[in-house]
């Protein structure tokens, strides 16, 4: 898992859309659609979440993510559906994909195979490289989904190649920062991490939580500002009872109002004994922040797994649950 995570920047450079996908994307762009729905679960969902948040200020139509069995009714034949399942055998994704097909939505599929590949026959399928854990394939999936979205939405393409090169270079300096991934993992030992994000870093906070769950096998939570100011902040009254590690993901894009909110929230967390930390990586653009924070926190999850002496690769409980459910259907 460590080598998969360390290959993050390299994987980002690997995305190539094949001819059928490109043609269908271009067709959808010309025809015009009402929205795009990204379907997938767990490690296969997160690339969509990050892309949707990254594009939220630029897209003229809704780009939504869906994690479940039946697509919401507003997803009709005027919507494009992008289904992602690394294994191609995830129940919820297969079911949502089926509803997309029955509603006549144009579909795009990212998978290594499984039933999803069979179900998607005759439509654009991007085959993913096998041999990864789904969550570790995030950069690979993102490097396909982001250009696909940008083509359909007729937006200027993000230069992922340069972003990946920058990330490779910048990550070398992380060992010299006050908080290295290892240090943050040490601080998280015996605590419940709570990742707080804002805007494009909201799904990154969610990703960090999932990586702590799946790789380091610990409970972890995520929340977002400004919403958390209206509920979670009251929970800080119990910080003395529960060992929490709040990590605030700080963006250089924060406007004054948001900065004030972060600072005031941090003060209240501190006053209540929650010992929050500001995570600042000094990244310069939105794409660098989305990718850089994700990469950094992925590394933290690996360090934490190592400190806790657990195997980040195996996901026994997810597999157990999938088996149990298969028996009931
Ligand atoms: O990272 C993981 O292993 C999980 O979160 C899976 O991604 C999730 O269970 C869905 O499976 P798949 O990605 O094969 O659709």
Instruction: Report the uncertain regions.
Output: none
Strand order, sheet with most strands: 2-1-3-4-5
Overall pLDDT confidence: 95
Gyration radius over CA: 20 Å
Topology, number of strands: 9
Overall geometric form? globular
- Strand pairing plus helix content: what structural class? alpha/beta
Number of helices: 14
Distance, first to last CA: 32 Å
Tell me about the biggest sheet? 5 strands, parallel
**Which ligands accompany this protein?**
5-phosphoarabinonic acid
SS strand fraction: 5-15%
Helix proportion of residues, in percent?
Answer: 40-55%
User: Strand-and-helix sequence, N→C?
Assistant: HHHEHEEHEHEHHHEHEHEHEHH
Write up what this structure looks like.
It is a single chain. The protein is an alpha/beta fold and 329 residues long. Helix content is 47%, strand content 14%. The protein is built from 14 helices and nine strands. The chain has a five-stranded parallel sheet with strand order 2-1-3-4-5, sandwiched between helices. It has a four-stranded parallel sheet with strand order 7-6-8-9. Strand 6 (192-198), helix 10 (202-214) and strand 7 form a beta-alpha-beta unit. The protein is globular and about 55 Å long. 46% of the residues are buried. The mean pLDDT is 95. The site of 5-phosphoarabinonic acid (PA5) has 15 residues, from loops.
């Amino acid at each position: 898992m460590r080598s998969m995570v360390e290959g993050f920047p390299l994987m980002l450079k690997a995305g190539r859309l094949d001819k059928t996908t490109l043609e269908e994307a271009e067709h959808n762009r010309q025809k015009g659609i009402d929205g795009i729905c990204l379907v997938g679960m767990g490690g296969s969902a997160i690339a969509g979440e990050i892309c949707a948040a990254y594009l939220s200020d630029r897209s003229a139509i809704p780009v939504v993510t869906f994690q479940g069995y039946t697509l919401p009714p507003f997803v009709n034949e005027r919507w494009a559906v992008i289904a992602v399942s690394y294994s191609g055998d995830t129940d919820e994704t297969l079911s949502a994909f089926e509803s997309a097909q029955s509603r006549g939505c144009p579909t795009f599929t990212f998978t290594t195979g499984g039933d999803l590949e069979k179900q998607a026959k005759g439509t654009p399928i991007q085959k993913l490289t096998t041999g990864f854990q789904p969550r570790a394939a995030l950069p690979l999936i993102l490097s396909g989904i982001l250009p696909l979205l940008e083509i359909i939405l007729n937006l200027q393409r993000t230069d992922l190649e340069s972003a990946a090169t920058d990330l490779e270079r910048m990550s070398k300096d992380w060992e010299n920062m006050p908080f290295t991934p290892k240090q943050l993992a040490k601080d998280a030992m015996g605590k419940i991490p709570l990742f707080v994000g804002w805007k494009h870093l909201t799904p990154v906070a969610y990703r960090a939580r999932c990586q702590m769950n799946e790789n380091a096998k610990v409970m972890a939570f995520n929340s977002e500002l400004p919403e958390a100011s209206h509920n979670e902040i009251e929970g800080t009254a119990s910080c003395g009872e529960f060992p929490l590690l709040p990590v605030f993901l700080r963006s250089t894009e924060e406007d004054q109002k948001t900065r004030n909110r972060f600072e005031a929230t941090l003060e209240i967390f501190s006053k209540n004994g929650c010992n929050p930390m500001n995570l600042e990586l000094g990244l310069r653009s939105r794409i660098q922040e989305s990718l850089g924070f994700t990469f950094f926190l992925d590394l933290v999850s690996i360090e934490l797994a190592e400190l806790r002496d657990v195997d980040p690769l195996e996901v026994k409980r997810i597999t157990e649950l999938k088996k149990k459910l298969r028996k009931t259907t």
